[in-house]
Structures
1.
Amino acid sequence: MKNYFFLSVFIVTAVSQFGYAQSIKDSKTLIIGQFDRPDERYAIEVALTELLSSNGLESMPSLNVLKQGSDPSVLANDSIQSMLLKNNISTYLIVNVRGYDRRFKPSKTEVSLREMLSRTSIYHIYREEVTSVSFEFTFFQKNKVVFRDILRCRNISDRDSVIKRIRKKLPKRMARKWFKS
């Protein structure tokens, strides 16, 4: 009886992950970096746009939609979302720093896109005297969380080494966890 239960849970999980991967591949993704410093937002959004595009997924940084220095929470407005939907953007990827020098698990709390966009980040990409930084990636579709993941970058020494680690580690992680189908 236990084996049937575990088998059914495995099948349901596999089917839901396949459905998620297919829906992501069919639409553009808007990448939103939740960082206070504009240079950090720019660096992360551009790096992720390049990584997603190299994996065959259309994506666009939020800096192409927002004016410099504007609040990302305006992306939750209905008028902006309808404009983005006309451009085939129905997936939002929010990236933020989860913390430093610890192991973290993806959050399980259900939040709306509006609530997530209204949060501010107290962390920077790099901080002196830390050896690792963990990034949380949260995908939204139809204003609901559809997938979350954590990427830990170790052996960092400055902001550029963090970006380099992301560019190296994330494609493997994306192939293994994000878009397996």
2.
Amino acid sequence: MWHFKDGLPYVEWRGGTKTWRSLPKVALKQLSWWLVRPLLIHWLRKIHQQSRPIDAPPAPPPLPRRLALAACWLNSFRPYEVRLWQSLGITTWDSLSQKIPESHCGVAHAARRAHWPDQCNPAGAVLSNKAALLELADPAWRSPFLTLDRIAPPEPPDWWHQALTGPGLVLKPLQGNAGRGVVRFRFDGEQLLTEALGQAIKESKQVTGSAMSALSPLWLLEHWQQIIASQENALAMPFLQQGPSFPTSHPAAVVRVITEQTMPDAPIRMQIAWLRVPLPTSQEGLALATLIDLQGQVLPWPLLSLNTEQQQQQDHWQSLLAKGPIAALERCLELSIAMHQRLPPIDQVAWEWIPSEPEVKLIEGNSGFGLMVPQMFMVMQQGYDQ
């Protein structure tokens, strides 16, 4: 982060400060950011403006020049991050510079863990392997799962075809992140239906009823690898939905809980938690989700307007959460702390749960998670106190 003090520029790294005397060492690294990036953004903006449909919604207004210069040119905040922070009343560089940009998350995690035992790498290794993490959970806290490997293809377990012909099977990379390669497969009696639950996927070939017998774990793994353009191993589990205490949504609402420990022998506590709630798809086919904390506060998304059905769904969830504690959500908080206690020493973990009933189900845990959303929710819960 670039700052000025006593009239002299200095560069602050997470975990240390380098003064103006170090500028020659970093100047070349900054040239591409300072010179190439503004030109690239200028031309991309011109191309985007020329390609916009006539009836497209208006483009967002430009950021204040001084704030854009400090945040997006000298430093590495992206414009959408600045607009999100503006929606919470953080409109000056002095206040914004206290926040961690998304591009700094990896550095921030590493600096915080630098003095922990083995820099928290043993815990990170468990968290990066979804099957290994699920093995740590009590069977009641997780759905059945299967690791899919082409070298040693497994036999289909008892629940395999029941899930495939019922609610569906979800396949995702054994060591994936950010919703990459998460695909739901469901056989409706005539064809195999494919649905991306995270990032977009390739169009898949249709599989008819006559091919049902071919839907073995190995066949489905190879089919999944083809449509996500990857040869990695997968984790398969039944498609899950939230319990009847919650409004319906598709796919399921996900509870994200961040647990933290200030030092290896300190107690583990819940730092922040929220829900990611999918909203009904718009007429334009746009799939949206809203982020709501456990008190019913919605994370603002400037320039994003909801239609009537989407707004009603969001209001329904807000009203439910504002009424007070919900047993399934409290259980997610409790079990997140319990799972953190089972890991080797680590300072922070982001857990994902499906609030199913009668018992919630663990989806995964992450050690290298984004920090913008938890920072924003913490500001909101502090009453916009900067």
